[in-house]
Specification:
Elements lengths: L4 E8 L4 E2 L2 H5 L1 E9 L6 E7 L5 H6 L10 E8 L2 E16 L8 E8 L19 H9 L7 E5 L21 H12 L2 E7 L4 E7 L7 E6 L10 E6 L5 E8 L7 E6 L12 E2 L4 E4 L8 H7 L3 H15 L3 E8 H4 L8 E5 L7 E13 L2 E10 L1 E2 L9
Parallel strand pairs: 8-10, 11-18, 13-16
Antiparallel strand pairs: 1-2, 1-5, 3-4, 3-19, 4-7, 5-6, 6-7, 9-10, 12-17, 13-14, 15-21, 17-20, 18-19, 19-20
Helix pairs in contact: 3-4
Amino acid sequence: MIEGAHLIMEIGDITLDLAPQGVVESLVELQVNESSGTQRSGFQFKLKYEAESEIGRELIPTGFFDAPKRVKFTLLMQGNKHTLIDGVITRQDITQSSSPGQSALTITGMDLTQVMDQIDLTGVPMPAMPTFVQVGVVLAPYMAYGIVPTVIPTVQLANFNPAKSVPARQGTDYAHVTRLASEAGYVFYIYHDDNLGANVAYWGPEVQLGELQKPLSINMDADSNIDAISFGYDGISKPLYVLMHKDDDITGMTIPIPFPGTNPLSPPLGPDLIAPRKFVQINHKENKTEDNDAMAKASLPEVLLRGLGKAAQAANVVNASGTLDVLRYGGLLRARHLVSVRGAGDRYSGYYYVQKTTTTIKPGSIQQSFALKRNAHGIFPGSVAA
């Protein structure tokens, strides 16, 4: 389909088999969105459609593309395997045209979090289970999809009293797990780890550190490897989150506890930190949001952990977006990892966290659009070229 790259499509109910060759040859376009944080990843692909073809005559009538069929796309490139997405179908659309070759079957789907979002289990008790144990119990049945849970315990364990209350599920498995993540200042997502050969369900703090991906280079003549990039800086949006804590045991005074925008898991991505421009009290009694109500019921260690997570997420007020050709770049840019930008000047070159990518594959072409973010300006000495 593309010189230097090979796309593999697998489909099945729970276990996967290679898609029929006729389906692969009918592929007109594949688009995969990979997101970080609380955003879910998804996909959409378009096939040539004819009523008398294998797709129209056999596959559609037998439910081959019906929800919730599992679909996996893998890209082989330069000897490396890149799983684009492992997910399930949620929708199909057929567009029929009088013009020859213009009819199409469009399939839309979500990542494997969708299989967790089907059955409302509100009220099912989870006795004597602190938060992270609840998450492990909820994720256990999905091992049939090759999902390996990675659950980071919270500080709740030190304060958990099973005799005080009996936790119960709220909503679907996905809704319950994501709510617990939000209350802990964590994130939850499922991704495919090609090194492990398994899907990983990660429940823990958002981590903005690790190994750098291949640099994104612009304005560097023959060394440029992206098509375009633009930058933005929201100079008034960074908040200083403050917890007003009343010290009942010792002084009875209310003590303000500020939350920094960086921490060991979300360190500064540049030398010039950005000052906060507004003050936000996260537990103000007049602020009756669901988020603050949950914090009001939490212990002080839980509130501190959650506040650190909120502050780190809100600190990323520098953003960038652009496009690249995957073969020219020499690989796939992946969300949830760091990348360095070169050639954009002293202020905007440097390290970024990849917030989102959209990979679009057509015959003869693999393109990506991307969104980056960071919490500082500038370049660390000796890191990348300005």
